Amino acid sequence: MATFPLLSTGAVAQYPLVRSTDYAVEIVDFLDGTNQRCLTRGKRLRRWRISLALLTEAELEQIEVFFDAAQGDFGRFTFTDPFTGEAVPNCRLGNSSLTTEYNAEASGKSSLWIEETNG
Length: 119
Fold this sequence. Notes:
Layout: E1 2-3, E2 18-22, E3 25-29, E4 35-39, E5 45-55, H1 57-69, E6 77-80, E7 87-93, E8 100-101, E9 108-116
Parallel strand pairs: 1-6
Antiparallel strand pairs: 2-5, 3-4, 5-9, 6-7, 7-9, 8-9
């Protein structure tokens, strides 16, 4: 399984870093206006927003190549949680497209979401 690329500093992400956790809940609405909520999976899944700035051309190219190899948001890979250092298998990109900006030498940037999946 592929692994999300590291920056030249050895870090997987830069600050500010956002991590969220959510459960999949299905809501059934009834005719009387009430509703019932049911968990559709018992495991909470994590999401990370990776904002990258001041990247070199080589680092941006590495992110672009990884995005293409992962086939956008279809491919699965292992991602290292920047908060815990834990390797999280079965992650996918949360974006169907990738935008990278080449502003000047060593000042490119990009942003993307990583989502944990059930497998």
